[in-house]
Structures are given as C-alpha cells and as structure tokens.
Design brief:
283 residues; 13 strands; single chain; 9-stranded antiparallel sheet; alpha+beta; two-stranded antiparallel sheet
Amino acid sequence: MNRVVAAGLCSALAACGEQRLDSSELEVATRAVVVAPSRAMAVPPPGGPAIVAVTQRSYDNAISQEIRLATRGATPGENAIHVTFFTAADVVDSEGVKGNLLKMPAFEDDAILREMEERLPGVAMAPSAVFVQNKYGPFSYAFGRGVGGEACLYAWQKLARADSIFLPKSGAITIRIRLCDPRATEASLLRIAYGYTISASLSRPGWRPVDDAPPPAPRLGDAGSPIYPVAQPGAWDAPEPAVSVRAKPGSRPVARRAEPMEPAAPDRRLEGYPVVPPPSTNP
C-alpha cells in the first residue's frame, strides 16, 4: 500500500514539474522590442517634443527604430521619428534573397505619398518646392492641415556616402519625421527637422554615412582678424542720421533721411569658406 501511495506521489510531482515554464520557451512572432528612450538613435532638438517610447527592430542588414514623440493633436496617428541604420548604401530589393533583410525605403514621389497616406490619413499634404538643408545635408518635407486645422509636417532624408574601393560599405541612414500639433506653425515644426540629432552609430569597420563637419575658418579667433556684425533689419533701434536740406524762401525746413551705408564687398575670396557658384546664364 505504501508503495502505491509513493508511486502516485511521484507521478503527481513529475506532472507538476512538466507544467513549469521557462522564459526561454516563449517564442514571439515579432522582432520588435521596446528599448529605453536613452537608446534612441535620433533625438529631437532641445525644446522639442519629448520621447515617449522607442520600438526597435533588428534585421540582417539594418536596425530600425520608431521613436514615438509626445502627441497632443487630434489627427489620427502619432508623432514619431522613424530612423534606420543600414550596413551598406547599395541595399536593393530583398525579394528572392534568403534571410531577414530590410529593403531600403524608396524616395520617389509615389512612395513618399503612400507613406504620408499611412502615417497622416486623411490629411492633404503639399510637398514644399523650397530647398532646405540641415547639418546633415539636404532634406525634403511636406506640410498640411489636419483635424481642426492643426499644422502637420512630414520630412524625409537619406544620409549616405558614395561607396568606392576606398570606402566600401560605408552604410546609410534613412529618416522620416511625422509631426502634428494644434499650437504649432510650419516654421516651428520645421525647426525639429532642422535640429534633430543622430545619437548612435554602428561599430563596423568603414561604417560612416555622414562626413565630418568642415573645420572653421583658419583665422577664426586669431588676433588681428576682427569680425564685424552685420546689422539686420530691425536689429538696431538707434535713430537714423538726418541730412539738412536748404529750404526755399517761405517754406519750412525739412530733414531727409540718409540711406544707411552698405558694407563694401571684399575684393578677394575669404579663406576657409566654400565658394558659391554664380547663377547659370543659360535660359
């Protein structure tokens, strides 16, 4: 009898042991993981919207993050920065290629339009024809009005150096910025596209999509090299000098405003600054 009870107890304990789960047994159907905001690969400028959460996805050839920002508008969707680090700048369509590869997002007009329809549903966005450039290079953007007339902006940019035998697989970075705010203007939203910062990199040999910043002018800070401020309209409140004009007999004297003198253009190219080509004369 005792042997039967002992055998039953052992069977019960074995069954309980089989029901215990280990965390390594869990298999998730997505590669997305939530990381701390401090691990964001791109951050807004100071005074910009706060980072709420960061979702990261890993691929064989890239790491992608959706950096969700504080959102207070009524337009469907969330403010976010979508940034992806690619191991090479010549990524092509991964169709038919084995492995977990991410395709480089397209920059054609129809592809950007599909992105805006997905991330800004129902908002009529008008691409800007103005050339804009931040500290990383040229970028493009579109502006529109969302629910209640709130300002919405969508910006896109690609950072990549031309691959060569001397710089193989230098990598690439793609950025998408989606913003809507009922209290913002086009200029204030555009400031975030101008001021965001890439705050991470890949520790791979040769991976450097962004060139180093150019050095300052060679004589900057040297004694004997004065730099004069250029007065901007409305920057000074000093009264303009007046020039007396001889009045005709029987009339009151009048004062004529003197035109401010413009600084003389230098007679030679300033060293340390890029040369801006003249406008094309072709019709």
